[in-house]
């Protein structure tokens, strides 16, 4: 009788366990075993939501799935290009399966449209979003979603220009830091008839007028225009202290019916420009410097408090600071400026982080592609001795002579070369530099 009561207790305890832990993980020990898919979950996402990711798996609730189908779903997520890593786990109960995908997203890049003058960016974005509901103006470097976006754009543009192809590539952004995923039309594109600016002073600027022919008369390309704005327009504002000037993006401004099938062969381009306020120099704070005093570094900048903050001069100052370190053997010094702007006082100041790195001394020189007589004259003209503190400016001045004034090195010796390949091979363990010169 006692044994019977014990048996019922065991059975009751087991039943209670089943009610408390109804979805304890079970395994699918054989590849062919399946269960009905009840739920798909996702964790680890940072930019995309679970409802946006689940459809990309290709799984359908209620269907029979096993390990193969789950692995195929994980592989499908990776092929999109959106995810760097995908793992999964699953729980089964009463022939039902719940799977959770653990994901790590790939970096996403802002999208740009290089030469689509027929449409506004918003129209192109809307077209892509119809195919890719999660699209927010960013895509990965590569993968199926990028190819699907290109296919959508081709179909969209074909309504006006049927004989074009759409290509894409990752390119440096011309107006900001970082890179972008650029889509480009390969085929007939209208040429630029004129380039206008909202700031009339730019139209009158002699430097702008001298370079405007690089744009006008050429096929429409936003990248070409952005390069022009970065190289020719932004420096004009920077030199005058307009450090936060807003330039672009360029716009195609058309007259007549905007829905006409064909654009004119030559189109006008308009660039909005807002100079903003003129900023003045407030100063700089140095952090991490030990070999060179803050006073010396500040003097190297050549800026005075209260001066107009010439952006070009500021950039030149950072380069002079790097050169100062290079002259003292710090070939790997990192100089990282961080700007702060006082919008009320219209001043700018900088906090500069410096990582000086190791000091290097001259070790040796290796020369290739030169005659023995030429090698001897190079070694004789080289001023640094083994063990000397390496001065990068001495090296750069010497290289300039080899490239542009070879008579100062070789005198009357006939030498024949077009280029001088050069490299500084550092050995941090020994603290030495080997100079490599290759004449071709």
Task: Please describe the structure with a list of short key phrases separated by commas or semicolons.
440 residues, alpha/beta, Ubiquitin-like (UB roll), 5 domains, four-stranded mixed β-sheet, 13 helices, 28% strand, disordered N terminus
Topology:
Blueprint: H1 2-20, E1 35-43, H2 50-53, E2 64-65, H3 67-79, E3 83-93, E4 96-105, E5 109-113, H4 121-131, E6 138-139, H5 144-157, E7 165-172, E8 179-186, E9 191-197, H6 200-204, H7 206-211, H8 222-239, E10 246-247, E11 251-252, E12 266-271, E13 273-274, E14 280-287, H9 294-301, H10 311-326, E15 334-342, E16 347-355, E17 361-368, H11 372-381, H12 392-404, H13 407-410, E18 420-427, E19 432-439
Parallel strand pairs: 1-4, 5-8, 9-12, 14-16, 17-19
Antiparallel strand pairs: 1-2, 3-4, 5-6, 7-8, 10-13, 11-12, 15-16, 18-19
Helix pairs in contact: 4-5
In short:
The chain is of the alpha/beta class and 440 residues long. The protein has helices at residues 2-20, 50-53, 67-79, 121-131, 144-157, 200-204, 206-211, 222-239, 294-301, 311-326, 372-381, 392-404, 407-410, and strands at 35-43, 64-65, 83-93, 96-105, 109-113, 138-139, 165-172, 179-186, 191-197, 246-247, 251-252, 266-271, 273-274, 280-287, 334-342, 347-355, 361-368, 420-427, 432-439.
Q: Give the radius of gyration.
A: 32 Å
Record the strand order, biggest sheet: 2-1-4-3
CATH architecture of the largest domain: Roll
Question: Count of DSSP helices?
Answer: 13
Distance between the termini: 102 Å
Number of domains: 5
CATH topology of the largest domain: Ubiquitin-like (UB roll)
| Percent in strands | 25-35%
């Amino acid at each position: 009788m006692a044994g019977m009561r014990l048996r019922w207790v065991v059975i009751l305890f087991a039943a209670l366990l089943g009610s408390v832990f109804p979805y304890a993980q079970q395994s699918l020990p054989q590849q062919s075993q399946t269960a009905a898919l009840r739920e798909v979950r996702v964790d680890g996402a940072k930019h995309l939501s679970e409802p946006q990711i689940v459809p990309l798996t290709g799984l359908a609730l209620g269907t029979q799935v096993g390990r193969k189908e789950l692995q195929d779903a994980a592989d499908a997520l990776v092929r999109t290009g959106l995810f760097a890593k995908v793992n999964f786990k699953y729980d089964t109960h009463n022939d039902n399966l719940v799977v959770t995908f653990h994901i790590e997203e790939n970096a996403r890049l802002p999208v740009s449209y290089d030469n689509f003058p027929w449409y506004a960016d918003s129209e192109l974005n809307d077209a892509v979003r119809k195919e890719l509901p999660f699209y927010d103006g960013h895509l990965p470097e590569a993968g199926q979603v990028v190819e699907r976006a290109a296919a959508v754009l081709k179909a969209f543009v074909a309504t006006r220009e049927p004989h074009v192809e759409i290509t894409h590539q990752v390119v440096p952004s011309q107006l900001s830091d970082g890179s972008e995923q650029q889509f480009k039309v390969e085929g007939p594109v209208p040429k630029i008839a004129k380039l206008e600016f909202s700031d009339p002073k730019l139209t009158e600027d002699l430097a702008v007028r001298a370079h405007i022919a690089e744009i006008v008369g050429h096929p429409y390309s936003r990248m070409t225009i952005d390069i022009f704005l970065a190289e020719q327009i932004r420096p004009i504002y920077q030199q005058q202290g307009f450090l936060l000037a807003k330039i672009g993006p360029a716009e195609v401004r058309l007259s007549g019916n905007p829905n006409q099938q064909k654009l004119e062969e030559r189109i006008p381009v308009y660039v909005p420009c807002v100079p903003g306020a003129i900023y003045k120099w407030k100063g700089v704070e140095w952090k991490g410097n030990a070999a060179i005093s803050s006073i010396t570094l500040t003097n190297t900048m050549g800026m005075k408090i209260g001066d107009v903050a010439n952006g070009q001069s500021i950039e030149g100052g950072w380069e002079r600071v790097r050169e100062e370190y290079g002259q003292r053997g710090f070939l790997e010094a990192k100089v990282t400026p961080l700007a702060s702007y006082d919008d009320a006082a219209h001043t700018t100041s900088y906090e500069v982080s410096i990582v000086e790195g190791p000091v290097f001394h001259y070790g040796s020189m290796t020369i290739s592609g030169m005659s023995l007589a030429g090698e001897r004259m190079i070694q004789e003209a080289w001023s640094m001795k083994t063990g000397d503190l390496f001065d990068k400016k001495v090296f750069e001045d010497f290289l300039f002579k080899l490239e542009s004034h070879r008579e100062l090195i070789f005198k009357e010796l006939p030498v024949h070369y077009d280029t001088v390949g050069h490299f500084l091979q550092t050995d941090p363990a020994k603290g030495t530099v080997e100079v490599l010169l290759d004449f071709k």
